[in-house]
Amino acid sequence: SSGINAEWPLRPGSSTSPEKNAAAVLKDFDEQLQKYKYMELNLLQRKKRLRAQVPDIEKTLEIVKHMLKKNEEFQTHFMLSDQVHALATVPPTEKVFLWLGANVMLEYTIDEAIALLTKNLNTATVNADQLEDDLGYLSNQITTMEVNMARVYNWDFKRRKAAADK
After folding, report:
1. β-pair partners for 109
2. What value, to the nearest 5°, has the Cα angle with vertex 45 and ends 44 and 48?
3. What pLDDT, on a 0 to 100 scale, did the predictor assign at position 80?
4. In the predicted model, what is the mean pLDDT of the chain?
5. Residues 110, 147: Cα–Cα separation, whole Å
6. Distance CA 156, CA 18 (A)
């Protein structure tokens, strides 16, 4: 005995023919591969959103720190809508309003705003790093699944060819 099981791709407990089992195993592998690719797509979308958030958080944090440091009146342009900006004079202030998302804006002291923005920036950075790790893992799983599918297909092809040559 060579130690190689001629019925290798058979599912445990299965008593059907190798042809049906190879097809079933390939179908199962393909379903798992599609799940991995779907998960990869979702993670890539989350990564894209995070990459867009980080510069916005950094810019907002920089502005709030500038307000804390200067504590004097300054002029700035702010966006009214996508194509409309206005010139504004900002008086010295101890409070700022931050958009939290979902059409929610809250008032914070400058120190609270800096703490919140710093925490959000750190969280976004950690999440981006974790997403990179998850994407690497998924990439390995996808490659492994594709290799396994090729092996089962080749095994089945050789088995069918040997049966046809008999």
Report:
1. 95
2. 85
3. 87
4. 88
5. 55
6. 8
Which residue in this structure is represented by tokens 């008086």?
91
Total length of the chain: 166
Using DSSP, state whether 83 is helix, strand or coil: coil
pLDDT one-digit tens code per residue, 81-116: 889 999 999 888 899 999 888 889 999 999 999 999
pLDDT band for position 19 (50/70/90)? low
C-alpha to C-alpha distance for 32 and 30, rounded to whole angstroms: 5
- Residues 149 and 30 sit within 8 Å (Cβ to Cβ): yes
By the 8 A CB rule, do 55 and 87 touch?
no
d(CA 156, CA 128): 42
Cβ–Cβ under 8 Å, residues 104 and 115: no
Q: How would you class 98 by CB atoms within 10 Å of its CB: exposed for 0-12, middle for 13-18, buried for 19 or more? A: middle
